[in-house]
Amino acid sequence: MIVTPTTTDGAALDVDVLPVMPGLAALYAKGAASSGRLAAGRAIPGRGAEDSPALTLPTVAHEVDGLATAGLRSHLRDYQRLLHEPGSELLPSGYLHVLAFPLATSVMVRGDYPLPLIGTVHVANDASLLRPVALGDVLDVRAWAERLRPHRRGVQLDVVAEIRTGGELAWRGVSTYLSRGYALPEPRPDDATAPDAAAPVVEDRAPEGTWAPPLPTGRWVLPAGTGRAYGAISGDRNPIHLSAMAAKAFGFPRAIAHGMYTAARALAEVGPARGETYRWTVTFGKPVLLPGTVDVAITQEDAGFAYTAWHAGRRQRHFRGEVTPL
Amino acid sequence: MTDTYTLFVNKGLGKTVAKKLGLPRPALLRRYKSGAPLTVGPVLLVADAASTPDARALGEVMRGWGLDVVERFVASSTDRAPEGTNGPRTPEPSAPAEQRWGAIVVVLTGLSRPADAAAAVLALPDALKRLAPGGRVVTVSTAPADGDAPALAAARHGVDGFLRSLAKELRFGATANGILLAGDAGAEHPSTLAALRFLLSAKSAFVDGQFLTVSPADAAFVDSPRTWEKPLDGRVAVVTGAARGIGAAIAKTLARDGATVVCVDVPAAGEGLARTANAVGGTALQLDVTAPDAGERILAHARERHGRLDVVVHNAGILRDKLLANMDATRWESVVAVNVEAQLRINEALLAAAERGELDGLRIVSLASTSGIAGNRGQTNYGFTKAGVIGHTTATAALLAAHGGAANAVAPGFIETDMTAHIPFVPRQVARRANSLQQGGQPVDVAEAVAFLASPLAAGITGQTLRVCGQNLVGR
Amino acid sequence: MAARSSTPAKGSPLRDAVVIGGNRIPFARAGKAYADASNQDLLTAALEGLVARFGLQGEVLGEVVGGAVLKHSRDFNLVRECVLGSSLSPATPAYDMQQACATGLEAAIAITNKIKLGQADSGVAVGTDTISDAPIAVSDGLRRALLEASHAKTLQARLRAFAKLRPADLKPAAPGIDEPRTGLSMGEHQAVTTARWGITREAQDEIAYRSHTNLARTWDEGFFDDLVTPFRGLTRDDNLRPDTSLEKLGTLKPVFGKSLGPGEATMTAGNSTPLTDGASAVLLGTREWAAEHDLPVLARFVDAETAGVDFVHGRDGLLLAPAHAVPRLLARNGLTLADIDFFEIHEAFASTVLTTLAAWEDADYCRDELGLDGPLGTVDRDKINVNGSSLATGHPFAATGGRIIATAAKLVAQRAAETGKPARALISVCAAGGLGATALLESA
User: Fold this and answer.
1) Which CATH architecture has domain B31-214?
2) C34 touches chain B (CB under 8 A)
3) Can you give the pTM of this predicted structure?
4) Distance between CA atoms of B243 and B270, rounded to whole angstroms?
């Protein structure tokens, strides 16, 4: 690529061009190993920030060029069926996220990446589809990490992925992660009072039953295999999504649905009114346990659609977000 | 629907066993099929000298129907000689030796005293031995009338006892019935011919030992195959209780004879009613005949939907058997309401329409029962209503006569239906065999009698009750 | 929400389409009297009853149109098969159509339009549904594997197709009555609408009580003697509870809206329709056709209007589409609510009737959603469903339209005969998918 990439804040990035899209399985193995190394050698959760070594993100972007989508027809079809997307030739934003996800993950398992992959929580996502991407388009994909910042419960950062077609930016996804128990030594003054305006509101900390859900417009009955099904398509085979037993090992009562699966379902159910280009955001709250029933309200607002999903019995919000035509 | 015993004793091993043991061997009765011969063989026409003109006329008619008629007119009892010597106009019966008579028609219209009967009667014994299975004996005689001289009355009444006794002697499904000519009705009256044809045919399979009286009445009549094939062509008939059993058979038979049939039954029986209506190409009218306006609604439906009303068959009826000692109001009153009061109320509406000049030539046929003639244990309510039907039929006939109409009743004996199928086995077997034909009748047997009485050909037959009972041993 | 057509039908060259009569079989609660009967059995019975009532044996009708909501794939030509199994002439054409619970009414609209245009002189609108014999499909996974295997050319490819199967794929898929786009059942959708409009439990139970008492009275009066033909030993709608009371209805536990929060669950099995089996048929034609066949004419099928609402994202209630259609229908015919003698508002739920009425009385809703200047108006409760409706009869989806048309047509005919003045009925049927069909009948 000729264009020199920069972060959102304008900082220059080096580019590390990978020959092919990396495989997620290998990345996870690497991530698990580096997580162990990081855990052993660095932060101990709960330790005071002043004791932490400085955390800095690598200033390098990973890039894969010339990713062909022509052969993905059946993969796309499987995705569309699972997410209730129409059987269109156009790639939904959630699908582009799936395509870029291995490259984004590769950034997070770099040797100079300061935080462990295991234990990192996906708290929000904000993706904009700027130009329609169709099956057959050839994609240039780039990903990097940026904006490491303090959070009340640790540190947050964004992993940005961009997809270009014909040299033009077509899609940009920003995934916000939280690493608990880490802290930045010198929080910037403006972050001290307001950690991050774009960061998730931590409604999952609200006491049970105190939040009043709106009237639902839909209900999802998610079978136990939902995590396995999305894992098979996205490649994200994190054990907490695959089986209750594995999830228990990580402290969850049952397997939990992929956050991006639930957000992508909401995106699909906005329907054709989202247009061909749109911004799609989500902020995650309480995880969705599988099997499970989720009440959702997907409602039209002034600029687009807002959606909220919750557990009707416990009156707890699972996630919320917006879909805005661009 | 023929009962299994009858089927068993009519073929193979069952036939042999029954024969050896002397068990009753009820015959498989011949029933009407379009296009089948009227009789199973040639007709022997017998008459005494005084009855010869009538006999000769009937012979001509029967030949016109395509029957092979052999005449044996006997001048006197002394004329009686070995067959083939003298006496009969046709000395040698045309039937070959092995051929059996399909029917024997005995014309006795000219009898003036009992002794006159011998000439014709004594010509019968040899002929009876050669009567075919399913054969017919039909007498044609003059009805007793007020003012008959004692000897004449004796002769005319005598035919009744003679015929009923003869009927009990016949075997193998053969029957004997009589036609009585009343008033000025002659042997050639259309209704005489219609009655003769009915009694000769397979349509009267279960009618045995009965008389039909023909009175003079105008009957538009053309003796043509079409007339006999579709006697109800262009007519509109209403049948109550048409959802199943005898009512459904009546609807089908009337439709076969050319009628458009309005099928009536209670709303709850609508499924069967629709089946009947669709089978006969008629219309279904879901109506409780006990409704106060049932008559008006029947009349309105028939006229609005089919333009006219010619025949009403009161077939709807219910059974609520109980010994009188145990009878309750519901059992009594419901049977009276359905079986007789409903018929009366509907007839009143029809008569009112006839009075207004809206109905001409209406023929009503009501279903009575042998229980209304001979009575039946446990059926005081049913017997009361069925005898009531016989009574009101005579009375209604008189009222309808002024409007060219007629009222008759048909009294079935034991008929194989869903209703009788629920009678316990032993009483059912006893009831079945207790008649000259040793079996139960079929719904179509009743239907054929109804269709005959409903047809305009039967114009001269009114106020009568025709039994369809195989000559049940009880009652007349 | 502007009216689709504002051209009055007056002075048009269209012919009159009339309702001659109807027939249905008694409606049966699912799994009861018709447990062994198929859609074809039910519809053929309804059709045969109609043929018998009107003497249509061997008749070539213009068209028989209708369908079923829950249908086996083998029943792709359900209505035609029923015609072939009936006493009608096999030369009578037929086609299947479906508009969820509005199937029966929409079928009548389709036929009457052809009649008005001169494309048909007669027709029968039919509808049938059975929950008892509902199609059970294989799961999507198994279905795809079977399809793939059937298309595969080699044994290996065939085996590969089945290798994708998971144990869960072997579970059969029962027909859903959930809205595909929302996953909410119709009852849950209506519970949301009920909560939004603040409809009380007591008002709903009152509607249910009147439905049962009105239907019981109507049966006793013999009103259905020429509208219903018994089937399989059932002579009356078996959901009817003539002895029900507000007290009994008040004891039932809510079944819908239980997750909406305290006090919001007001919909019970008593004020919601049960799953039901049944079929209906309505005979339609021109006046001339009726006269030629010596058949009576009950009512003129004046006009119809359908509507859809955006319920997917909660803008409107799933079952409120008729509220949109009716003002357009009335306006096109120059009528107001006051001109209607009988309102037949399909009781999918008691609250469907109540929310529809509330919507018409609400100035904001009428302005913002219906595009009216003010409230459409108030309906006299004594004109609504006077002979009972779906809460009492039950609701075999596609069969309900036919039931209502026949009842409404007979009601206006009777009223006109009594008063000597024309009488009108307004029919409103809500349907899954945010659909609604409405029609206007006038005494002939």
Assistant:
1) 3-Layer(aba) Sandwich (3.40)
2) no
3) 0.88
4) 7
